[in-house]
Specification:
- The chain has 328 residues and is an alpha+beta fold.
- The chain has 2 domains: 204 residues, Glucose Permease (Domain IIA) (Distorted Sandwich), CATH 2.70.70; 104 residues, no CATH class.
- 13% of the residues lie in helices and 29% in strands.
- The chain contains 6 helices and 20 strands.
- Strands 5, 7, 8, 9, 11, 13 and 14 form a 7-stranded antiparallel β-sheet that branches. Strands 17-16-15-18 form a 4-stranded antiparallel β-sheet, with no helix packed on it. It has a 3-stranded antiparallel β-sheet with strand order 6-12-10, with no helix packed on it.
- A hairpin with a 5-residue loop joins strand 16 and strand 17.
- The termini are far apart.
Length: 328
Amino acid sequence: MAVFFINTVQGTSTKLVWPTPNTSFQDGRGIESYLQSTQSGDPQSGGFGCVRNKGFRFHEGVDLKALRRDAKGEAVDPVFAAMDGEVAYVNRISGKSSYGRYIVLVHSGLTPAMYSLYAHLRTIKLHLKAGVVVAAGETLGVMGRSAIYAIPKARAHLHFEIGLRLTDSFQRWYDGKKFENPNEHGNWNGMNLVGFDPMAFFTFHREGADDDFSAYIQNQPVAFTLRVNTRKTPDFIRRYSSLREGDIPAQQLVGWDIKFTGFGLPVSWKPLSAKDLLEPWKENRVILLDSRPGNKKRFPCRNTISSEESMGAHLRQNLELLFEFRPR
């Protein structure tokens, strides 16, 4: 079992465990030894980001390959909790999600309290349900290929992702969209989750970096900054208050300057008062303050910035979830 450590804001450290028995990452071997490729055969297609369909399809996590199989060729690798945490959600029915059978943990020992998600499982331990506390390295289930689509035996894997939850009011947003299918997963629907690269995260801690987890999140590469005119404090920034830069104005909050990664993760929130604004205030107005050159080309799969001057569909959706209004 590959073990690393994460520094916390409290000045302590917490155990970080590679979620499968494969020690290739810890041993410094190439990605082909631990990432499961798609049908393309390219190991990078098992990684995070714009790695599929020639860069135009996004992958939220990493796909970790199987080491061991039974006589029928099915994967039998155990799947481990990456950190101490609490079970937030369990889906045991394969056909209800593109994740297949999956489990979500919340890690309240970290600041902010990120989630980790383990998908396409063959089985999930029977005692695991929302509220159950698990330890880093504890077995959650067995790797598999469950999903609403067919995953061949040869490509059975663990889909593993880490990130933050956008809103506690996902169902209200979902109902307003009038989707054809019901939301079976509450706030732990994949549309409500926004992640960062698990490989970069593990690499950072494998190398023994000193930054605590909060600093790690805030130091994610910023692709653009938005100004949102609103008097609302979203539940996201209440839940992840360590991402806030400065205090909320004592008189009246009029907006937020928010720094985003190119994949849509809001990593820094600066609250604004009237004296911070140069332009006329208009409720629910969204202004692109700055954007790194070439964002459209750098993130073609995510549609956060459709050009250097406009928001893409995915960013608009994230803003709807965060603020519960249609951005304009």
